[in-house]
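Technical appendix A lists one of the benchmark inputs used to test multi-chain prediction within the project. The record comprises four sequence entries:
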Amino acid sequence: MSPRPEDTATLLVSCPDRRGLVAALAQLLYGHGANILDADQHSDASVGQFFQRIRFDLSEMHTDRGTLERAIAEVAERFAMEWSLSYGSRRKRMAIFVSRYDHCLHDLLWRHRAGELDCDLPLVVSNHRDLAGTVEQLGHHLHVFAITPETKREQEEAQLALLAEHSVDVIVLARYMQVLSAEFVARYPNRIINIHHSFLPAFVGGKPYHQAHERGVKLIGATAHYATADLDEGPILEQAVVRASHRDSVEDLVRKGRDVERVALAAAVRAHLEDRVIVHGRRTVVFD
Amino acid sequence: MSPRPEDTATLLVSCPDRRGLVAALAQLLYGHGANILDADQHSDASVGQFFQRIRFDLSEMHTDRGTLERAIAEVAERFAMEWSLSYGSRRKRMAIFVSRYDHCLHDLLWRHRAGELDCDLPLVVSNHRDLAGTVEQLGHHLHVFAITPETKREQEEAQLALLAEHSVDVIVLARYMQVLSAEFVARYPNRIINIHHSFLPAFVGGKPYHQAHERGVKLIGATAHYATADLDEGPILEQAVVRASHRDSVEDLVRKGRDVERVALAAAVRAHLEDRVIVHGRRTVVFD
Amino acid sequence: MSPRPEDTATLLVSCPDRRGLVAALAQLLYGHGANILDADQHSDASVGQFFQRIRFDLSEMHTDRGTLERAIAEVAERFAMEWSLSYGSRRKRMAIFVSRYDHCLHDLLWRHRAGELDCDLPLVVSNHRDLAGTVEQLGHHLHVFAITPETKREQEEAQLALLAEHSVDVIVLARYMQVLSAEFVARYPNRIINIHHSFLPAFVGGKPYHQAHERGVKLIGATAHYATADLDEGPILEQAVVRASHRDSVEDLVRKGRDVERVALAAAVRAHLEDRVIVHGRRTVVFD
Amino acid sequence: MSPRPEDTATLLVSCPDRRGLVAALAQLLYGHGANILDADQHSDASVGQFFQRIRFDLSEMHTDRGTLERAIAEVAERFAMEWSLSYGSRRKRMAIFVSRYDHCLHDLLWRHRAGELDCDLPLVVSNHRDLAGTVEQLGHHLHVFAITPETKREQEEAQLALLAEHSVDVIVLARYMQVLSAEFVARYPNRIINIHHSFLPAFVGGKPYHQAHERGVKLIGATAHYATADLDEGPILEQAVVRASHRDSVEDLVRKGRDVERVALAAAVRAHLEDRVIVHGRRTVVFD
């Protein structure tokens, strides 16, 4: 029943809400012989915006991909749609950026090997040598870019060149402890996923577990979000929490936090890789 | 932007999965001037079944309801669909059955008053007098049907007559400690919602909190499900859990359990009232 | 086996950590024939502070309460302990303050009747008439103190007089939408429990659900804390969260939030009533 | 303030509840100059049993360990206590048993390296070759014992010999798909930790995710428990759940389940390694 993944495509659409949108797209796809496998939509009444994700089967299309894309572009213009189309036959290419903490890195590499993350993983990048052995051991090479205030600009240029050379689509900051410049971020809009080690917007900035301990909170959390030029302010993809108590030292919070960081980040990465995310302003629509 | 609730309708569809389903329904509604507000669908590959919920706006339809219904019936026959259509202009009518525990009753009555449950509430029924005062105090009348093995059949007949007289659509067993006969259940298929005070299928049968205590579980739960002739075996609508520990006596488990029972039952009742549930075999599709 | 509640007492102790503390108190109680039922302790290495809660049985004491208290005072002085002793034979007396939202009020009154909250409930106070009917219906009288900037001081004086007259020990702000003056708060240090409708310190201040919606968070929460002169900054007693998604409007967040507010507030009130809380600086120790 | 871990010891005690227990042990330790760092106790009124965990500092003891142990034995006899004493200076030695699924193995090895699990890890054992490469890559050697019904007895003997040779204290069955014989289990009573991939007692036996899918549950879980001769019936150490929905195929449940299996198993192993568990009948006391 289920088609082969490489015969499918996913269309993401966002536009001002108005009548006839669902029918227009359903009819268009039907007319080209593209069978809808899965359609989910959302209307946000507070901003009058419509969002839709349609996954469809290309294997019995009457027309070719180019024709289909031109048809979508026509409808999109009529309805002022922003849209993107991604083909199952082209796997996304992911880079992982890491510094000294290896829990998210380990987790992502394990999930990748286990088949949970449908992507190629051509690059692991760090601003420190520390994890070179670990990364090697897990079958990857670590690209190290030592960064000082003086070298930051040129090192980021070198990183961008490497990313371009490997055709990277999405960057995961797996506890990368180096703020990316606005220029860098602008090159991958809504394609850089960061994990912040707190329940944002509580505890922005550095040392959130120390802040949480000091404030005496009873839950601690983690937030996966798209990186933007404003640190800790990007659109939120996923959040998770775990109970804490007076018995937890800062070290305990750090340990507990690692578990929720891994889970929140992995869920966010999966959602991105499966084309389930649409960003609108500061907010995300994350289809199930 | 949002239409008035009474101008909307919700269509639920279940049928063998095949191509063209989404387009057929979208096109049909568009053709009658019914604007789709919200559409969610699900294909269960394991059983080859397709499920869809479409909420639409009737206020600018070109045709009348009868014509629309006939058109849906035609499409439904072509695709072997089971379907139901409910109009926002007709509120569902709910009866609550209760015995001696009042936490779910209180919670449902409060939620009803707070506007969380979009229904009329013409009947509260019990097999005991105990809660008559409570129910009265909260502005309802308690209909008492004392039941013994000898009187069960005739009392159920009387209950069914009362339910029919008040045009009840859905019955909520809010800790009703009396097993309904198969005949009674058959009169309201997938329209009787029960709350079982355990995480089913763990701890079926009586005294689940005692069983949970004896087994030393670290989480206790509650399960809201449609009642079927097989006790504790009906399609599950919602489940919730809460942590337990060695410190919890049976009484503590009962107390903690009340909180998750209330939450699970309320969520299930909301889902039913909002036409978000389709039953297929022993399982439910509960759209968000 | 278990003694009658009225034969028990609970000792709470906080002091600089040093050796011999546990033995000193255990020995003292043993020497008076007070049998320890339950003892829990915590050492916070980050601040070098020791905390202990001891519940004991008075029924076979060799000495009287006065003698026991003098003995405790002696040990306390030696170890620079802050301590409090509460007797099971004297139930705490609670006042509930409420404004226009009734979900926490309803929940607390129901829990009180169900025996979950071991206290007397002599007073329900509001700054609005709106809930007078509801409170009446539930068997209590609503004391209304309309408050304007001009009348605030005198109305708070009148409230304090009423609280004193009814020997109130603990005040629960069950969504009381009126900021208490620093003078008022100072009269009930660590004895006023507030529920804030967000996961503090995220979304301090007004309209937290609007803030949460605007920020696009994926979890919303509630925080029960002791009220202090600094709004939203008091020691946290309990926090709870629930998942949110892009589908949730502000109204949905408000509805979901009500459920976690009720649960977090009830847990905090129980902990306080059962003498399980010690405040140290901005943080709480909440024994299980 | 905090003593070095190697200067600490942990005493676990279980006995019929009676007065004077807490004072007797506190006094005993004080008399030997052993400073109590942490004491937690629990009385289970339903069975009249008392449980206590005391962690203390040995660095300023007046007497030697032998003398202390003899003194404890004396008190223990008086009160009919079962007790065990473990010294921080002797790390526990853990063996991991694994079959073909590597998620729990990976997780435990990572946590061990990260310092979350305070133990030596001399052995990784399997009944299959499959994970030899993975285990090697992570810096350990895999001991393979192929098992058929005919060779089971002798292979278990060989495993037991290997375990004895490496002085293993605790065995973790990290998805080990081979039932241990009653004789094997009897050699490590309450020292073999298993992870069952369901919320026990729901879905005992094989293929619990298939069972869960078939039953249409809305939460799936994992249970870490001590292995006993009765499969899936041992004392429960930890349980965790995650939400499921109609959208989850069996494969999705398996994937989601891996996350909760890892978390539940890791928590159980930590509790065991930190001497926070006492078993009484079928139930556990797991101190925080």
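Residues 250-273 of chain C form the longest helix (24 residues). The longest strand of chain C covers residues 35-44. Comparable benchmark entries are summarised in Table A2.
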